[in-house]
Amino acid sequence: MIDTPKWPIKIKDVKPGMIFCKVNKNGKSMPAFVLKNSKTYVLSLYMLHVIFSDGRELIASPGHLLIDGRKVKDLSIN
Question: How far is CA 22 from CA 14, 19, 34, 61, 65, in A?
Fold first, then answer.
């Protein structure tokens, strides 16, 4: 699921031009536009379940790229 200003929607239903909610580097939610969609096929036998300190959760393949260019598998517990 991905947050929009009105309600969460399934990521598969996101289309270019839609507005979603992103979190800036200060942790504040703000609107942003979807510019394009893409798919990446990953050959992975497992997924990682990440729970952030604010309660948000992410389930992704180890090689999934984060906004800062790191891979999910490179996250660490602080």
Answer: 14, 10, 11, 21, 16
The residue ranges of every structural domain in the chain are 1-37, 40-78
Q: How many CB atoms lie within 10 A of CB 75?
A: 14
Q: Which DSSP helix (H) or strand (E) runs through 30?
A: strand 29-33
Query: pTM for the whole thing?
Result: 0.49
From the list 51, 55, 73, 56, the residue with the least C-alpha distance to 64 is 73
d(CA 26, CA 38): 27
Query: Under DSSP, is residue 75 helix (H, G, I), strand (E, B) or coil?
Result: coil
Mean pLDDT throughout 39-55? Answer: 81
